[in-house]
């Protein structure tokens, strides 16, 4: 006899009160990601883990490929999770999670698991989701396994010592992209547009971007991804204070400024309508408001800053917003100085201890 697979629906929070509320009374008190882990102070991925698992709730199973959020959270026989959790090799987050999803479906159909179908998710770093493990995640999305595939993006291979990854931004200093006479900007390439790749390449999936700057947005997109029957992909901007060199209290602020400076478009892709919905932030800032908060950009010269501003202006157009003349003017290198001469600039990151 075949049993029905009953799925759950998680409620969405009211977005009309604003995306940037901190206190969300409708959320459960319980944290499936409990306090007592060992991530750095201000760790963006840890904030994201906490919000995503709070949004998912206790009837959840979660996987984590190798990366900071495996190594810093778990030692032998010890994890901060109050829900079932498994570590996977860095390349296998997608295939492992496919197996979990297919396994739960089969067990429920055969009457070997009472159900309902649990919230199944994996949270992989950018090195895993955008690079070493992208094949297995793309395969899982394409086969449409009913699970949420999250990339927590700290724009580097953090756990092994802040090496460049495909999502490290242009001019982002890492230990593999040091700046110097030959390459003054450090990193020369633009970041891989991972979320757009996932949406364009898997048009039957729910795909969205978000940041730790907007808890309501992050929680609702997590729940929409889990409620969607089939595969969903969430790309979340998560600052890494060790690698990026900023004041530890500024993680959430960075999560907003990156959007307000046009460098991280926040959107969702609806597979039913095959359409993108773009968030239009109420504030538009020069990119220096964002870059100068981080030591990883302190070496940038005027022409590098102007180039980043030109990229941000293209993003504004892409999401359907006007580019104010003041931001157009900042595409001119003559309007900039070296970044570490900007007011409030963080000290230059020379790579020592990174
Ligand atoms: C196949 C393979 N190559 C390299 C490593 C070494 N390694 C362990 S963690 C890590 C960094 C992963 O980066 P990311 O996925 O971005 O997670 P983060 O550390 O930034 O949280 C690397 C390269 C590995 N474990 N497996
Ligand atoms: S190195 Fe970065 S990602 Fe890793 S625990 Fe520290 S802040 Fe978090
Ligand atoms: Mg990373």
Structure description:
The longest helix has 17 residues, at 93-109. The protein is of the alpha/beta class and 354 residues long. α1 packs across α7 (215-227) and α3 (93-109) runs parallel beside α5. An 8-stranded mixed β-sheet has the order 2-1-3-4-6-5-7-8, sandwiched between helices. 32% of the residues lie in helices and 12% in strands. Bound molecules: thiamine diphosphate, iron/sulfur cluster (SF4) and magnesium ion. Iron/sulfur cluster is lined by residues 39-40, 43, 45, 68, 72, 154, 158, 240-243. Thiamine diphosphate (TPP) binds at residues 45, 66-69, 90-91, 125-128, 132, 154, 156-160, 165.
What labels would you give this structure?
12% strand; binds magnesium ion; binds iron/sulfur cluster; single chain; alpha/beta; 354 residues; 12 helices; binds thiamine diphosphate
Explain briefly what this protein structure is.
The protein is an alpha/beta fold and 354 residues long. The protein has 12 helices and 8 strands. The termini are far apart.
Q: Termini, distance in Å?
A: 58 Å
Number of distinct beta strands: 8
Order of helices and strands: HEHEHEHHEHEHEHHEEHHH
Q: In which order are the strands of the major sheet placed?
A: 2-1-3-4-6-5-7-8
Helix content: 25-40%
List the bound ligands. Answer: thiamine diphosphate, iron/sulfur cluster, magnesium ion
Structural class per helix/strand content? alpha/beta
Q: Please state the average pLDDT score.
A: 93
